[in-house]
Amino acid sequence: MATTRPVMALLLVAAAVLAGAGPARGFYLPGVAPADYRMKDPLAVKVNQLSSIKTQLPYSYYSLPFCKPGTIVDSAENLGEVLRGDRIENSLYVFEMMEPKLCQIVCKITPNQGEAQDLKEKIDDEYRINMILDNLPLVVPIKRLDQEAPTVYQQGVHIGVKGQYSGSKEEKHFIHNHFTFLVKYHKDANTDIARIVAFEVKPYSIKHEYDGDWKGNATPLKTCDPHSRRLVVDSDSPQEVEASKEIIFTYDVNFEESPIKWASRWDTYLLMADDQIHWFSIVNSLMIVLFLSGMVAMIMLRTLYRDISKYNQLEDQEDAQEETGWKLVHGDVFRPPVNADLLCVYVGTGVQFFGMLLVTLLFAILGLLSPSNRGGLMTAMLLLWVFMGLFAGYSSSRLYKMFKGSEWKNVTIKTALMFPGIVFAIFFVLNALIWGEKSSGAVPFTTMFALVLLWFGISVPLVFVGSYVGFKKPAMEDAVRTNKIPRAIPEQPWYMNPVVSVLIGGILPFGAVFIELFFILTSIWLHQFYYIFGFLFLVFVILILTCAEITIVLCYFQLCGEDYQWWWRSYLTAGSSALYLFLYATFYFFTKLEITKTVSGVLYFGYMLIASYAFFVLTGAIGFYACFWFTRLIYSSVKID
């Protein structure tokens, strides 16, 4: 398995393929080299997991009584694929290039009571079969009612459907036992070489009939016979799922030449039909940014400029004190906060997460990971997280030294273990639940071991290296001297209460990203393609600006109220947007998803809790550094006696 091959994983990060703003046009970098086929070359179809948007629990294809080859061969998988629950195996569906075939028998099965019940349950839960040909996923084309609208593609084909016979009210389960595949290829004009550019299917349910004895794949079928021009074109006499009832699996395969070039073959899958909504999201977010930028500019140019000029010109300090309150706390503004070591840990973790996201998105918009690299994005993010430990250690120790702390090793250990430890504990519990459901989505012990090895073998040492370098550097000097005796903080108005201002501060950063968040959640939980990293990068930049500006504005109001305890407040102000993210995820669960199983619900909220926690440390660190820069700037600009 690829998880035990770090060299391959490193190559994946360095050269694996993420797509740009919308699908990139032209040749994708590494990932997958094009395969050339000639007439009658064998085409082996691979099967992937069975997936459902109702349960979110993937299962192996051969966990159901489908046609099995003599020997099942697992394809090598990278770390991301294993974590996604992908299980790629060989199948009995083997075509010949440019050779159409009709009514091909795959096999005949007779399910027992348990197998029939399994099939019915999977049909109830709307499980889909996922197949792969030449690294392209199998899709079902769905025409829109609007004839001019482009065709949309559903990933995977449903195992079956529920329905009723005419004149009956009893609901039955029918299996899709006949697939009509369409393989589209692009042919080179000068040679007979062709490349596959699409893999589509139309499923049917048909109760096959035959005369005489069963002769395996050579049995002539009465219901599907190309010689008598009897083909499967509808599901008028469907195949019911019942114990001890024969099910015959068949397929047709047709080939069609396409003008689409191999380099652009993913474009149709990744087609973004609702890009206007994304632009609306960007414009909406930019309005928030402009509003906040105006407020920050007003504070910086008008208020602060006037304040600083007066402070520097007036000899009578009492007059200056009457003017405004932020200078009054100059002797306390850089006083280390309570739980300073914990703040350093969370700031360091936020820097680590920020670095990981920034590099991932830069790789993405440069086209350095492609959708054909299943699991590539997750593998890249994991490895980048590990290597960004260097910056986490450096930033946490630098801050800790400024607070005049001496136990830098304790802070380093907490930085290396706290966030990953909490996430790993939640992940371990969720994985145990998936094991209990016998799902292929459960991460194997070997992969768990590989994750722990990445954590303790690479991430932890890098955090220590970063901390050592950061602590050895001279401490940052405070802009003003701190008094020995803390100043009393006057009573604050209700709207400057820490809880109120923190909760207000999280609304705007969340408001800047929530529309894009809808598409990300849809991609993850409704198994739709998401590859619009150009939009995502813009939203990320807007998030950074919004977090920074709202924190600066609220920090200024806080200092004007003579409240100098801004350290934790600045982190929590921006970080509280994670609370709104989790609340939105809860709203999304009850309005958009059809999850019915308790385990699936626990999985959803468990993973969204991890995502919200990560969003908290990311936005918190952005807000903290913005406020840190702001306070140092304004207090270094005034003359203090």
From TrEMBL:
Organism of provenance: Urochloa decumbens
Signal peptide: 1-26
Segments crossing the lipid bilayer: 279-301, 343-369, 375-394, 415-436, 448-471, 499-526, 532-559, 571-590, 602-630
Pfam families: EMP70
Protein topology in the membrane: Multi-pass membrane protein
Record flagged with keyword Transferase: no
Lineage, opening ranks: Eukaryota, Viridiplantae, Streptophyta, Embryophyta, Tracheophyta
Alphabetized SUPFAM superfamilies for the sequence: MFS general substrate transporter
Name of the featured protein: Transmembrane 9 superfamily member
Compartments where located: Endosome membrane; Golgi apparatus membrane
The keyword Transmembrane is annotated on this UniProt entry: yes
GO cellular component, one term: endosome membrane
Keywords associated with the record: Endosome, Membrane, Signal, Transmembrane, Transmembrane helix
InterPro entries found in the cross-reference section: EMP70 (IPR004240), MFS_trans_sf (IPR036259)
PANTHER family: TRANSMEMBRANE 9 SUPERFAMILY MEMBER (PTHR10766:SF57), TRANSMEMBRANE 9 SUPERFAMILY PROTEIN (PTHR10766)
Family classification: Belongs to the nonaspanin (TM9SF) (TC 9.A.2) family.
